[in-house]
Amino acid sequence: MNLNVSIEFAENSYKKILEDFFKTVYDEKSLYSHGIDHHRRVWRYAKELALLLSDKQLIDDSFSPSGLIIACYLHDIGMSVDRGIIHGHHSREICTGFLEKNSLRTADWVDVLEAIENHDNKEYKTFSGKHNLPSVLSVADDLDAFGFAGIYRYSEIYLMRGINPSELGHLVIKNARKRFENFRISYDFSGDLIMKHKTRFEILGNFFNEYNEQATTYTFGSQHPSGYCGAIELLNNLICKNHSLTDFLMNKGYDHHDKIIKRFFDELKSELFE
Length: 274
Description:
The structure is a single chain. This protein is mainly α. The protein folds into two domains: 1-125, no CATH class; 145-274, no CATH class. The chain contains twelve helices and no strands. It has helices at residues 3-25, 36-55, 65-74, 87-101, 110-118, 133-143, 147-160, 165-186, 191-215, 227-241, 245-250, 259-272. The protein starts with a helix and ends with a helix. 38% of the residues are buried.
């Protein structure tokens, strides 16, 4: 069975029940940035990576698209329990519940459970050999940290973890650079793929470089948000008030006189609802 057929089989077998299960567990309003749409995008990136690796004969023989789709859809579901660094452990426990609910033997999916639990370990080691399920999941997850969606995702989770807005940009750039470098090294055989996602990485990097410069003089909490810091301040207001990002974007709550703020939310809307 070729990989395209295996991916189609995995989607037909698991996508609907995974999405239905996810929606019964995860409250989108509590952390929209890590909700069902994030997991859908990670699956999309994972398929792209897996097909490329297969074409180059760089994927491990034990690789399972069925295992990958389960890992992609449930890796961050533990954020429903804990938004901190141990959310992978909770995701593993919830995934175990999903397997049991659907009469799938846990012993047959140990690699999936381990990949889910450890997916957020970003202490990257030098890659050697062929790619496997954990490495594909990790990179696919990293790719969703770039672009305008990445700016939003980083900002929401960091702010909800209590990071000071004045420190936010530096921490994001440091973390995102590690993710991109691991991707670049792991997929150095595909210049086209690297350039595609380098553009998205640079969108995030350029935004937060400007943000950091503005943050040295910006007063957070003012009545007149402006520029790059103002865009993040508006996001923070949504978080604090538990307002829906979807409603905010679809109703153009950001229709702002500030061109930087307006462009950011226009681009974010375009990415999230493309």
